[in-house]
Structure formats: C-alpha cells, structure tokens
Amino acid sequence: MTNRLSADNWPIAAAMNGFSGVLPDGSLVQDQPADHWAATLEQVVDAGFTEFDPSDSWVRVADLSPSRLRDFMYVVKTVGLTIPAISTTRKASVIDPVNADAYLAYNHRVIDAAAEIGAKAVSFGLFGEFTEEQKRHLWFWTADGVKNPDDPATYQKAVSRIRELGKHAQELGIEVSLEMYEDTYIGTADGAVKFVNDVDVPAVGINADIGNLVRLHRPVEHWASMIDKLVPYAKYWHVKNYMRIEDPAQNLICSYPTSLALGIINYRVAIQKALAHGYKSAFLCEHYGGDSLTVCAMNRDYLRTILPR
Amino acid sequence: MTNRLSADNWPIAAAMNGFSGVLPDGSLVQDQPADHWAATLEQVVDAGFTEFDPSDSWVRVADLSPSRLRDFMYVVKTVGLTIPAISTTRKASVIDPVNADAYLAYNHRVIDAAAEIGAKAVSFGLFGEFTEEQKRHLWFWTADGVKNPDDPATYQKAVSRIRELGKHAQELGIEVSLEMYEDTYIGTADGAVKFVNDVDVPAVGINADIGNLVRLHRPVEHWASMIDKLVPYAKYWHVKNYMRIEDPAQNLICSYPTSLALGIINYRVAIQKALAHGYKSAFLCEHYGGDSLTVCAMNRDYLRTILPR
Amino acid sequence: MTNRLSADNWPIAAAMNGFSGVLPDGSLVQDQPADHWAATLEQVVDAGFTEFDPSDSWVRVADLSPSRLRDFMYVVKTVGLTIPAISTTRKASVIDPVNADAYLAYNHRVIDAAAEIGAKAVSFGLFGEFTEEQKRHLWFWTADGVKNPDDPATYQKAVSRIRELGKHAQELGIEVSLEMYEDTYIGTADGAVKFVNDVDVPAVGINADIGNLVRLHRPVEHWASMIDKLVPYAKYWHVKNYMRIEDPAQNLICSYPTSLALGIINYRVAIQKALAHGYKSAFLCEHYGGDSLTVCAMNRDYLRTILPR
Questions:
Q1: Distance from CA of B243 to the nearest CA of A (A)
Q2: CB C85 within 8 A of CB C122
Q3: Which residues make Cβ contacts (< 8 Å) with residue A192, sequence separation at least 6?
Q4: CB contact under 8 A, A254 and B252
Q5: Which residues in B lie closer than 8 A to residue C261 (C-beta atoms)?
Q6: Which of B249, B250, B266 has its CB closest to that of A290?
Q7: I need a labelling partner for B224 at 20 to 30 A (CA). Which of A157, B32, C47, C254 fits?
Q8: What is the β-pairing status of strands C252-258 and C241-247?
Q9: Backbone φ/ψ region at B93: left (φ over 0), alpha (ψ -120 to 50), beta
C-alpha cells in the first residue's frame, strides 16, 4: 500500500498549533464537549485538509478516558478527517527535570493511543516548557529555552528511554520520530544522527524539523548540509519554513515565519533527497505567526506539487 | 439584508493607495477626464474586485462638482464596481493645526457624498500629512509623524467634532469608523476605546487598522490584546498585515508589509471575534510596498475563505 | 508577430539558477547524459513553464559539441519547452581580469548558439565569480563582489567589446541585454544608461534586473526612480523581487528574496512603463532562496495577470 503513495494521497496533516489548548475562560480544550471540538476541526476541513495531528498542546488524546476518546474519534470521523500521527510537545520529555517518569509513562500511552486510533507515527522530543523570558518575547525563539544537560548519565537515560519507547512502538507497527529542537540532544544534525544511532531501533528515526533551527537568531548549520545528514533517518516530518537574514557587517541575524515555498529551506530538494532514501511517512504542516491554518493549507498545496505524481 | 452577508457577497473593497493621486506631469487624478479614471478602475476590476474605496488620496469625491461626480459614478457603474465606503486620509483631521475648520466642513461633505453615492460608511482619522523626514525615508513608518497634542482642550475639540460628524452621519444611515493611527488620540487600543466612548454616538466606531501599529519600529501592544479590546467597537475595517521581528538581544524591531495570511496579525481569529460581536461592515484591503493591488486581491480571496459560508 | 503578444503567450522563461550546474559527485550537468537533462527539465514543465533559459551556470549551450547540442535541443523539444534567450552569468565578462579574451570569444559563440536554437536574446554582464567571502556568507549579496575598475581604458574596452558583440548579434536578429549588477559599469541606472548610449547599437539594451540592486545591504537608488530611467532601454528582463527594510534610527538595511507581488519593486507599474516604451522582449523569472522554481512559477502566473489581455 505504501508504494501507492503519490502527490494526490500522501498524508499531509494540519498541526493544531494555531489553536490554543486553553480557552479564553481558562478551561481546557481537553475538557470541551465534543461538538466544540467539531467546530474547530471543521475549520481544518474547510481549509482543505483530510488529515490532522491533534498535537498534544491542543488535545492530549492519550489522556482522554476511553469514552471521551471514542467521542473524539467520532467527531474526527464525522467531519471527515484521519490522524496519521500524534505529536507530543512541551510536556513530554522523558528527561524532564521534574516529570521525567510521568512523561515516560505518558509517551507509552501516546503509542498505545496511536495504535488504537490507527495512527502510524508518534513524534517525541526532549524540549521543555517555555521559560518566563520566552513568554515575554514576541517570538519565543529569540530567547533561550530549557537545555538538555551536558551530562553522560542524562544522555544515556534519554537514549534508554527512547529505546524502550521505540521497541514498544515497533511491536505495534508505529514509528517514532524524534523532533529536532535546539539545545537538546537532538538539536543539531550531527547530534540527532548520533542519538538515533545510539538508540538503535529501526522504528526510531528523525523528525527533521529544521525550521526549529533556521529560525534561531544565532549561527546555525546551513539547511542543505543538515538535510544531507538527516535524510537517511527521516521519519514523520514537521515541515515549516522561515526567512533568515544574516549580515556579519551589521552583526545581524534574524528570521521570520513564511510559507514553505518562500522560506530559506528548499523543500523541493529536501524532500526529493528524503524520497530517494525511501521516505514514506506522513508530513505535518506547522506554522507560527499569523493565520497558521491558512499558511499550513498553502503549504499542503505546495507539497502536493512537488511530491511524485 | 445584512443578515444575508456571507463569504461570497461580503463587501471587500480595494484601496486606491497603490495609485498616486498625482500624475507624472504634476496634474491631479481629481482633474482627469473620466475615461482615464476608467482605465485605472479597470485594473481594479481585472484584479477581481467588485468594490473599491476611492480613498481621498486618489480622488476626493466630496470635492467633485455635481456633474463631475455624476461622471465619476457613471464610470464606476460602467466598469462594474460599487463603493461601500469612503476613506479620508492625510488632509482631513478635524484638529489639523492649520486647516481644522476646512477639514471639518470637508468631512461633512464626505458624509453627504457617501449618502448620495450609496456608500454605507466613512473612515475619518486624526493623522496628518507626511513630515519631510517621513518623505525621505524608504518607509514612512520608520520616522515620527504629526502627533496629536497632549492637551485636554484639543482632545475635547476632537471628541466634539467627531460627535457632530457622527450625528450627521447617523441621520443619513452612514457609519463613521475612526482609523487607528499612532500618536493620535485613536493611536492605541485603550485610546481608541476611550475616544469612541467619549464621542458616544452609536453610528461611530473604530476602524481597527492595527496594521498601522504593528509596523512601527518601536514597542507596541500585542495584536491579540488590542483586538480583544477593539472588536466590540469595530466598524468599517482597513485590513493589512506586516511581518514584525523583535529581538531584545540585538535591540532590533522591524517590520515589512506582507499578505494578510503571512503577517503577524491572525485575521482568522480577529475577524471571528469581531463577527461574534455582530460586525457586519465592509472590509477595505490596503497594502504598502510592491504591487499593492495584486496583494489586495490575494487578501480579498483570503478573506472569503475565512468569512462565514 | 510581436504585436500579437498578450498575457497568454508572452514568453516567460524559468531561470535554472535553482539547479546547480555541479552534481553531488562533482561532475557537471554540462556533461550529463541527455536523459538526466530531461529529468530536470520535466520539473520545469511540471511547474507550468513553456519557456526556460539554460542560464550558463547550469549548461553552457554554446560550449556543447554540435551533436550534444542537438541532443540538448531534442530533449528541450521533447519535454515541451522553448528557449527565448540565453543568459550568461559569472564566467563571461568581456573585461574579466584573467579570461577576458576567452570570454569574449565565448560570448560570440553564445550569440551563434542563440541564433541556431531560435532564441531571440542573450544577456551579458560585467560581473565576476564569487569571492571567498561571498561564498562564506549565507547570502552572497551581503559581501562585496568583484568590482569593475574605475579606469577609462577598461571602460572603453568594455564598451568596444559589447559593441562588437552587439553588431554580431544584430546581424543575426538577436538582441543583447546588459544585466545590471552592482559595482559594474552597468551597476546603477545612470551608469547603465550611459553605457548603453556609449555602445550605441540598436540591438543592445538593458536587462533591468534591479532586484540585483534593491537587495544590497547598502543605500541604493529608489526602484521607481531607476525604472523611470531604464524603461526606454529595456530589453530581455530578469525579474525577481526582494523585501527591503531600511531604518536609519537603527542603522539597519536588510533584504530578503520574496515573490514578485510581495517585494518592494512594483512590477505592475514597472512593466506598464516598459510596455509604454514598446517593450516586447521575453521575461526571465529568477529567484534566490528556498524553492526557486516554485517561486518562479508563482511569478510567471503573476506576470500573466498584469500583461495586456
């Protein structure tokens, strides 16, 4: 079936990062009645999507009770969507300084939930919640976030726990994609490749979300060099793009979110290289800034023009 | 009839700010023969618009003689356009240091002209002509413009005159929308809300043109916070968008005009909130930089994807 | 025939600058088997182009052997493309400090090749290969490139050689368009106009590629002022656009590549002015940054909306 993938039917999911998980009255989308979920998901459908990723900043499907999960999936099916993958976000690191054990257990539940709802992939990361400084900034990537410690024991703990999760996922036919994020063990192309090789489970690969890196207002490796290193390991992929200006004479480095076509990463080339290495996972369209859903829809349309006919 | 408004027929006007009111030979568009007006308006029609706002920087319809106004409206009708609203620009402030009385009289004529040509709204502002420094800059928003004085008497004069205009407009079934613009009494969300409450005429509301603010190379309130304050008062709305980069570490704040979807203001959210408060006025697409008309057309198409079906 | 040009059939070529002339294994596209050329050109066709310019950074058609050129043109025809013009790039300046004579001979061969394959124009420039500093920068326009010497003898040599080429081209019914590029004799509007007048051959005009200039992180003449000077001389035109931010208060000048519609140059106005001067050459869509081919395709579609019906 995977060899039937083509531009028309390749799973391209909308991220829910344009929709807050916290409602204006302070209550959580997690606790909304099902028809409110439907109202939000209908916007996703109206934007032309047939797939979405609940992104656990919006709804933590793995933490829904069995009956609520049934309600959720009923809504998803009714509006006409499917879920190719579940991404975890800022409350899920298996080496979180405070909640590491709870998050490890949560990640196992995410894998089980993925299997139950028919998703084929999960995305895990080692990044944490926003710092107070990040919350104060207009764009969170202009301030430092939580950093993984330069400590062999913690590194080894991360490897072991991701290996454990990877084996669990592999048994259920689920792939684990590790999201690249600055200042984590998966925060550079070389670091991500080393980490995945240290984990050494075939079901575990890299979520080559180098948009997370090219937006940093500090020196970063050229996108093309990173892609060459990453494509042999690429799995479920968060795609987004940024303009990036560098001018040493002005001591200037800055970035701004834009569409996949207009940003610095050439996704035509990046995806062609991944396909040449057998990439056959879904894509997730993410975007920060402005109308995220609309830009994700543009990006989905763009991807369909560069995927194989 | 207003409750029949939907994505397909919501009035979305092109601004004429991409077309200079002064011709290469120094003569004014105001004085052009009617067929020259037609040639320009045909470009607007070719870009897919069914509505436009003459924007008084292009043609001051309120200052056309009766026979010239008939010619103008004949051209407008012949090319297939309607005019949902008339916006005044830089020569219209009712507290202008030099021409306040003349501009007050002009604004009354604008209201009368709006009624005569079937427009439903006018946009008034308290900003002035460009300073010499603004004219020298590539982008006028990188230099300070004329500021409203911090003086209770002038503030009160502005309130009284806008109230007088508002009552005139209200009698004719026209709404008055006050354009947000930095360093005027309507230059912040809080200031605009206070001003409109001080005016206290139901026909008078706010033109939530916060694109004018998010483009400033200085600290500004977050767009989402402004929108929450403004939507209860929103009337005829100039929509445009900007990228906005802030980086305290580099002491950097800068902006650049972009499409509604790609800029920092999430118009999906902003407009949904306004609709929830009963917004039913027209929109005006404006854009500075590059091919204004083409970007306005993109923005119109975008608006139709997020307005109610 | 030229008076039948309209939006639908105006030749608008894709540049090949999104495709490297050097393959990952270090070999040259110049030496590829014909079916590999076809694979690349099929992407150009899939992007909706009917014309392309081989851009000598991709393939130097004038240096193909007769049989290889036949192969090349067979591929071009088979995929459904035509070549309205041939642009030379960084290894072609007739006043190159080292290879001036060889490049002059090459330029003559380019003219002959153009005539042979049915192209109507060639683009020549006086710029050189990237400096080491340019190669180290993320964007080459943030470092100085090779500069033409401030030396009357070299200037005169450039004029004479371009005149010689222009006469050769003119005999074959080919136009020569001189590409504007900073720090060359054709590096400002005034300089380009003077140079073309000094050359004084009707077949020789200006490639008004002012995208090359508005992207510079230094003061440049306003695009509108340059266009007014250039349009009487405009021939085969490389069109691309950039955002450009200037803020004297922050001592900031920066740029970023964007689509024709969103960048600082208003191509609607620029092209209308050129058409009024009788412009009837092809356009070349170029773009740096991200997925060049996709942005070129957007730009082609945009051009067709502003060309005469």
A1: 7
A2: yes
A3: A178, A180, A186, A206, A208, A230, A233
A4: yes
A5: 290-291, 294-295, 298
A6: B266
A7: C254
A8: antiparallel
A9: beta
The verdict on C131 touching A (C-beta cutoff 8 Å) is no
The contacts of residue C99 (CB under 8 Å, 6+ apart) are: C91
pLDDT band at C17 (very low <50, low <70, confident <90, very high): confident
Phi-psi region of C55 (alpha: psi -120 to 50; beta: other; left: phi over 0): left
Chains in contact with B, where contact requires at least 3 CB pairs less than 8 Å apart: A, C
- Within 10 angstroms of residue B6's Cβ, the number of other Cβ atoms is 11
3-state secondary structure of C239: strand
Average pLDDT for A81-94: 98
For chain B, list the domains and their CATH numbers.
2-306 (3.20.20.150)
Tell me: pLDDT of C49 over 90.
Answer: yes
Cross-chain residue pair B291–C305, CB shorter than 8 Å: no
The letter for the amino acid at A79 is: V
Provide the residue type at B219 as one letter.
P
Query: Would you state the pLDDT for residue B1?
Result: 43
DSSP chain B: -GGG--TTT--EEEESTTS-SB-TTS-BGGGS-HHHHHHHHHHHHHTT-SEEE-HHHH--GGGS-HHHHHHHHHHHHHHT-B-SEEE--SS--TT-TTTHHHHHHHHHHHHHHHHHHT--EEEE----PPPHHHHHSSSGGGS------S-HHHHHHHHHHHHHHHHHHHHTT-EEEEEP-TTSTTSSHHHHHHHHHHH--TTEEEE--THHHHTSSS----HHHHHHHHGGGB-SEEE-EEEEEEEGGGTEEEEEEE-TTTSSS-HHHHHHHHHHTT----EEE---SS-HHHHHHHHHHHHHHHS--
Are the beta carbons of A290 and B250 separated by less than 8 Å?
no
Closest CA to A289 of A219, A223, A242: A242
pLDDT(A276) > 50: yes
Residues 15-74 of C with CB under 8 A from A: 18, 43, 46-47
Contact of C114 with C168, CB cutoff 8 Å: no
The verdict on a CB contact (< 8 Å) between A137 and B248 is yes
Report pLDDT for A1: 44
CB C243 within 8 A of CB C267: no
CB contact under 8 A, A264 and C18: no
Q: Which residues of chain B have pLDDT under 50?
A: 1-2
Question: With an 8 Å Cβ cutoff, is A264 touching chain C?
Answer: yes
Residues of chain C in contact with residue A306, where contact means CB-CB under 8 angstroms, are 291, 294
Q: Given a contact as 3+ CB pairs under 8 Å, which chains touch C?
A: A, B
Mean pLDDT, rounded, of chain A: 97
Which residue type occupies A246? E
The pLDDT assigned to C1 comes to 44
Q: Is residue A3 scored above 80 in pLDDT?
A: no
- For an interface test with A, which of B244, B247, B269, B309 has the most A Cβ atoms less than 10 Å from its Cβ? B247
How far apart (Å, rounded) are the C-alpha atoms in residues C251 and B254?
A: 12
CB contact under 8 A, A139 and B250: no
Take residue C69 and report the two structure tokens written for it. Answer: 């050129």
Q: Which residue of C has its CA nearest to A261?
A: C291
Report which of residues C270 and C289 the model is more confident about: C270
Q: Which residue is associated with the tokens 């070299």?
A: C154
> In C228-255, which positions are buried (b, 16+ CB within 10 angstroms) versus exposed (e)?
ebbbbbbbbbbbbbbbbbbbeebebbbb
Q: Where residue C18 falls among pLDDT bands split at 50, 70, 90?
A: confident
Distance CA C62, CA C84 (A): 15
How far, in Å, CA of C81 to CA of C12, rounded?
11
Q: Which residues of C touch A269 (CB under 8 A)?
A: 291
Please state, in angstroms and rounded to a whole number, the distance separating the CA atoms of residues C107 and C116. Answer: 14
